[in-house]
Specification:
heterodimer, A: mainly alpha, Helix Hairpins, 75% helix, B: mainly alpha, Four Helix Bundle (Hemerythrin (Met), subunit A), 2 domains, 6 helices, 74% helix, globular
């Protein structure tokens, strides 16, 4: 059986769910940020796979993937800055100790 | 040949992602993340997205991973390791449920795929799509403003008072 759209979609789903598990379960805020990056990469694989197999000459999925990368870069910069600011004021990056805004 | 390359890349990608989630040393986690980004670039090449593969290496391997490693070094949490919190079991259940749903949907849906050969190389075509008539010129400008705002925001957040 040759490789088709489904294989790439399943690879993307596996990566997305691994990233989701990491985001929900990890305590270190930097590791949570890394898992968000895994999820964004998974979405990019799905977009590029759809672009390759559904509209091979229009490249719409690849253009969307470029915009996802732009937002991912902005998110990583601001996320790390927020984590470092919290580390300065509270002395930890443990997400379970960031409870000042907990009701 | 093409199939073998895809399977190798898929296995390497999934193993790297599992290592990111399961390893305890934060620095090794970051190195596995870099490896994951590289193998995703390989997946793009198997999808005939050559420009995107190069952008992936430049942006993710070159920039984002450096930002993340600097973040790890500035927050001295790496000696505590990357442990799981209270929500480990619910997170596992949610992840597996979502995985089952997504795989079921991907396998059972009848996708309308096209038999046309993919464009190659894609760089010029992406440039025309982005900047050409009826293209994505406004989103490109907005993306530039977004990057600028994110840069300024990061500087403001991280500045010493």
């Amino acid at each position: 059986m040759s490789i088709g759209l489904e294989h790439y979609l399943i690879l993307s789903a596996v990566l997305f769910c691994i990233g989701l598990y990491g985001v929900l379960s990890k305590r270190n805020a930097v590791v949570i940020l890394m898992c968000v990056e895994i999820m964004l990469n998974a979405v990019n694989i799905a977009l590029v796979a759809f672009s390759r197999y559904v509209v091979p000459t229009l490249l719409t999925g690849q253009i969307f993937a470029i915009f996802v990368m732009v937002v991912a870069a902005a998110e990583a910069a601001v996320g790390i800055a927020i984590i470092i600011a919290i580390y300065r004021s509270r002395g930890t990056v443990d997400a379970e100790k960031f409870d000042l805004m907990k009701w | 040949m093409f199939d073998i390359v895809f399977w190798i890349l898929a296995v390497v990608t999934v193993i790297a992602a599992l290592a990111v989630v399961l390893l305890r040393d934060v620095f090794r986690v970051a190195l596995c993340l870099v490896f994951l980004f590289l193998s995703v670039a390989g997946v793009y090449i198997t999808l005939h997205a050559d420009f995107l593969a190069v952008v992936q290496i430049l942006v993710y391997v070159g920039a984002i991973s450096v930002v993340i490693i600097v973040g790890i070094m500035l927050t001295r949490e790496m000696w505590h390791g990357s442990s799981s919190g209270k929500l480990r079991i619910p997170a596992l259940v949610v992840g597996l449920l979502l995985l089952g749903t997504l795989v079921f949907t991907a396998v059972t849906t009848q996708w309308y795929t096209s038999d046309m050969p993919p464009l190659e190389p894609t760089t010029a075509a992406i440039g025309i799509r982005l900047f050409g008539e009826g293209g994505f010129l406004l989103p490109v400008e907005v993306a530039a403003v977004l990057i600028l705002v994110a840069m300024l925001g990061a500087i403001v957040l991280i500045r010493e008072k």
